[in-house]
Amino acid sequence: MTPVSPDPAPIGLGIAGLGMAGTVMVQAAAAHKGYVLRAAADPHAAPRTAFARDFNASVYDDIGALCADPAVEVVYIATPHQFHALHAILAAEHGKHIILEKPMALSLADCDAIIAAVERHNVRLIVGHTHSFDPQIHVMRLLISSGALGRLGMIHTFNYTNFLYRPRRPEELDTAQGGGILFNQVPHQVDMVRLLAGGLARSVRAQTTALDPPRPTEGSCAALLQFENGVAATLVYSGYDYFDSDEWHFNISERGLPKSLDHGVARRALLKTPDEARARTEAFAYGSGKADAPSHQPHFGITIATCEKSELRATADGLMQYDQFGAHEIKIERGPGMPGRREVLDEMGRVLRLGTRATHDGRWAKATLEVALAIQQSAAEGQEIALRHQVPVVDDR
Ligand SMILES: NC(=O)c1ccc[n+]([C@@H]2O[C@H](COP(=O)([O-])OP(=O)(O)OC[C@H]3O[C@@H](n4cnc5c(N)ncnc54)[C@H](O)[C@@H]3O)[C@@H](O)[C@H]2O)c1
Asked: Ligand 1 center to residue 82 CA distance, Å?
């Protein structure tokens, strides 16, 4: 770690893409003391107008103009993921630090191009949000890596959602263009288990399914990851809008809000949506609705880590630790703002103002994408796939 003088100046943030992810990050940044929202870019006028009104900030219809704005120190890129490489390289060329949404890109070659641009222009890159930033995953990691619980043996994570039946643009249902769960949902699980297990996954064996011909992309996945250190992790995901695993997570939603379960509601709503792509854009654009502040921690399904001396489970407000003396709750302070996204902003803040090394940097995110691509390859070929680009966890604090 390079010692640097702490710079108290807030970080000027520019948002590229005022859709669903952009809206949540705007909310997180507005509540974060270390950041000031300076600008945003989106080709659609309505979210631009709403953002300019709410923050008295500059708005652009072109991401190039956002990247050229001298008030912007960090660009958060939440454009559709087929643009991630193009937009991240553009931001780096303008000397901007980058927070890039997951997945980092759609190919390892594009990840390499982003990493090269970031290094060439001497800017910093964090890839997030993924649910590995969730406070429970962080505390689980601290407990596991402290050694106090003995050896980590395995991790089990599963999530059943309505992902495939939310309104979608056509490319979101085409795996070749980054559609389906492998690029959108499974990377959260991969990032979480890599963080907990130390990062160095050795191989993947997986099976995926595409059960609905009108939505011809992967909607479910079962994968086994084996790590260099002997840890095994199982990842199960289903986005078919039947079972909802939040039923087993205290009826709390992914973002940490109370949830009333309504199985099949997304499928039923789609039947009444004549123009799905338009509904997708309008429903999630910045300013189209009020985003409630979470009352619990965020989560991504159910995650359990098995160690020699106890098992840990992420819960709505922290962790449960199960051992020979019973079940013990470990509460985690929710803190101000938006847990999960707040940690993304914190990590970039520490990198820029304290000179720490990022945990979720380009090479980390490339390794996570490698696993997602290997899941796809394993399912297609029916065999175990060896991984070659894995990197260990670097603790940034
Ligand atoms: N971390 C998470 O939990 C999470 C959640 C949702 C989305 N995401 C990620 O965020 C990204 C965006 O997903 P989304 O669901 O917000 O999509 P979205 O369609 O809701 O939003 C994308 C926005 O980008 C805008 N856009 C398109 N081209 C642009 C350009 N050239 N310049 C500026 N803006 C442009 C669109 O108009 C739209 O407003 C995806 O990569 C997705 O994987 C992450």
From this structure: 10
How large is the angle between the packed helices 135-146 and 186-197, nearest 10 degrees? Answer: 30
337 Ramachandran zone, left/alpha/beta (phi>0; psi -120 to 50): left
What digits encode the pLDDT tens for the residues 331-373? 999 988 899 999 999 999 999 999 999 999 999 999 999 999 9
Query: Residues near ligand 1 with C-beta < 6 Å?
Result: 16-22, 41-44, 63, 78-81, 83, 101-102, 129, 184, 284-285
* Distance from Cα 22 to the centre of ligand 1, integer Å: 7
What is the pTM (predicted TM-score) of this model?
A: 0.96
Atom 25, ligand 1: which residue's CA is nearest? 17
Tell me, yes or no, whether 147 and 121 share the same domain: no
Number of domain units in the chain: 2
Chain centroid offset of residue 350 CA: 19
Question: For the segment 160-192, what is each residue's pLDDT rounded down to a tens digit?
Answer: 999 999 999 999 999 999 999 999 999 999 999
pLDDT-flagged residues of the chain (< 50):
1-3
Domain of residue 122, CATH code:
3.40.50.720
What domain range is 225 assigned to?
132-338+369-386
Which residue's CA lies nearest to atom 21 of ligand 1? 19
Specify whether the CB–CB gap between 114 and 77 falls below 8 A. Answer: no
